[in-house]
Write a structure and sequence with these properties.
CATH class of the largest domain: Alpha Beta
Bound molecules: guanosine-5'-triphosphate, magnesium ion
Strand order of the largest sheet: 6-7-5-8-9-10
Radius of gyration: 25 Å
Number of domains: 3
CATH architecture of the largest domain: 3-Layer(aba) Sandwich
Distance between the termini: 72 Å
Order of helices and strands: HEHEHEHEHHHHEHEEHHEHEHEHEHEEH
Strand content: 15-25%
Length: about 450
Amino acid sequence: MNETKASAKQLEMAGRAILVGVSTREESPEEVEKGLDELTRLLDTAGGTVFARVTQNKDTFDPRTIIGSGKVKEIADLCEGNEVGLVIFDMELSPSQIRNLEDDIGHDVRVLDRSMLILDIFALHAVSAEGKVQVELAQLKYTAPRLTGHGAEMSRLGGGIGTRGPGESQLESDRRHMQRRIRALEEQLKEMDSNRRTMRQTRDRSGIPRAAIVGYTNAGKSTLLNRLTDAGILAENKLFATLDPTTRQFTLPSGDKLLLTDTVGFIRKLPHHLVSAFRSTLDEAALCDLLLILIDASDPECRSQLECTESLLEELGAGDKPKLYVFNQCDKPEAKEMFALPGKSVQSENTVFISAKTGEGLDDLLVALQRLLHAGKTRATFVIPNARAGVLNQLYAEGAAIESVDYGAEGITVIAVVDDKLRGRLREYDTCPPIREEY
Ligand SMILES: Nc1nc2c(ncn2[C@@H]2O[C@H](COP(=O)(O)OP(=O)(O)OP(=O)(O)O)[C@@H](O)[C@H]2O)c(=O)[nH]1
Ligand SMILES: [Mg+2]
């Protein structure tokens, strides 16, 4: 056997997994099963296969091994003779819990948790320099302290779910070296973040409103941006296919321009380190003018996926942005059944049903987008004295759509579409404050 590459057999074994879920007072057995269904999809995306599922009902976690010793023995017995290389828990485990579980299960089996698996997929899918730095940082902070001897060995062999990625060799390095590397990556990220801010400011100065397409992973976000703008983004039936945000300009039938951004998908229990490492990417969603929340209407879990998306948006500080709920994948029979499509006559104003794949419902989407874009806004003409030029910056900073700026002797004349609050605050410069011209 080649010493530096794992054999196909070794890799197959390393990817064959037992999934473990624990039902507590907070999580019912049905929820645990759904969690394991999602873990199966994550494992599939990472290139592994499920050998068996093991669940336990427990009021409190065993602090040493989460599950009880009888269950650990049951897993060890299942691993024996079945060429199982991985045991994956659908929750976060501490480094010592991983060590204890690996010791108790034996058979050279590696124990991973849900976050390590998600980080592994991010490592596989990272393309841009920024994406790679973000993933490596999250891996160094989360995965590295959890890797035991088995992990390092598979990583050296050139494979092994949970040990891949830009930080692969760093994961084995000593602690001091790792701390230095973490600081260096944080510095790099800071610089990338400031570049991103500059780009964002340039975009903001164009006055074109920005909309972010957000939603659960695999909802069809990239497919929609591709359909609307020929962006050519990779869209596939894998979780977290997109890590880097892509922005394209789009012109609505009314002639209004819009900057549309495809973003990284959300998932339940998104690892905390990943959220902080991807903060600047996720800010693309937080700093836009409106949100297109994409939902896979054919997924039986779409309601809980929407809840998860909304709570993550809240966490990112984007909870109160104007939102359009876009139920996608409506060409699928499951969606038609669940939402009684077609013929659904009552739709709330901010909800549309579409198929990014076939294009059905896109007209409704564009009309709804237009309505949202103009909701509560009016076109105003401000004359700002030259000595108060800072007010123009305020208009830019607060997201006014600026249509023209003329510098004259009497001051700066600005025509802009603004919301009522901003218009009220700039009343003294407003040439026509009492008349509300509906835009
Ligand atoms: N039938 C059907 N399939 C769709 C539709 N929209 C997207 N898909 C499929 O769903 C899968 C996921 O689509 P993506 O566009 O990659 O989804 P995403 O939300 O960008 O996913 P991530 O980037 O992984 O978070 C792909 O296989 C698409 O072809 C749709 O309207 N109908
Ligand atoms: Mg995508």
